[in-house]
Amino acid sequence: MNPTTKPTSSKPSTVTSVRNHLRFGSAFFVASGLFVLLGSSDLTDWPVELFGDLTFWPLGDDVQLSRESALLSAIGGGVMIGWGVSFWGLTSLLETAPTAVRRIIALSIGSWFIFDSLGSLLAGAPLNVVFNVGYLLLFAVPLRRLGAVLDTGTTTEPTRNPVVA
């Protein structure tokens, strides 16, 4: 081996790993948005009604979605899908603007968590806060790892064109 050549590693860099985890979280948000969108039609609202039954105690209550709930399912599902797609797009900028990507996603997820959880408590659905913690961790864990990389400045990932990512 030439002494000026750095050894290559078969392990992905931390930035690549963070990108993959953030993309998984983004895809999960899109899938969740599609699930919520099911509540916008009488033909497909049974999974959302089941979720409502699990979330609002006691179990076994007959949960029926109103027209207003169907509209909010359409809006909420669409917002979640768009949000997941936006996060996915932001991950392609990790090499060129990692601090900005980290800040945007952290502020977005953090504010969503606070207000969605507060709204869930006010609506009498504390179990939804537990579900929210899962969503929060999908992003908080890789963002924390990215913060550690930014603090130390150690990543073996070369700079690449974010449009190709």
- Straight-line N-to-C gap: 30 Å
Q: What is the radius of gyration? A: 20 Å
* Approximate shape: elongated
Order of helices and strands: HHHHH
Domain count: the total is 1
Strand composition percent = under 5%
Helix proportion of residues, in percent?
55-70%
Tell me how many strands there are. 0
Mean pLDDT: 83
Uncertain residue ranges:
5-11, 156-161
The helix/strand class is mainly alpha
The number of helices is 5
Main sheet specs: none
Task: Describe the fold and architecture.
The chain has 165 residues and is mainly α. The chain has one domain. It has 5 helices and no strands. It has helices at residues 14-37, 46-55, 67-91, 98-122, 127-152. The longest helix is centred in the C-terminal third of the chain and has 26 residues, at 127-152. It is elongated, with a radius of gyration of 20 Å. It starts with 13 loop residues before the first helix and ends in a 13-residue tail after the last helix.
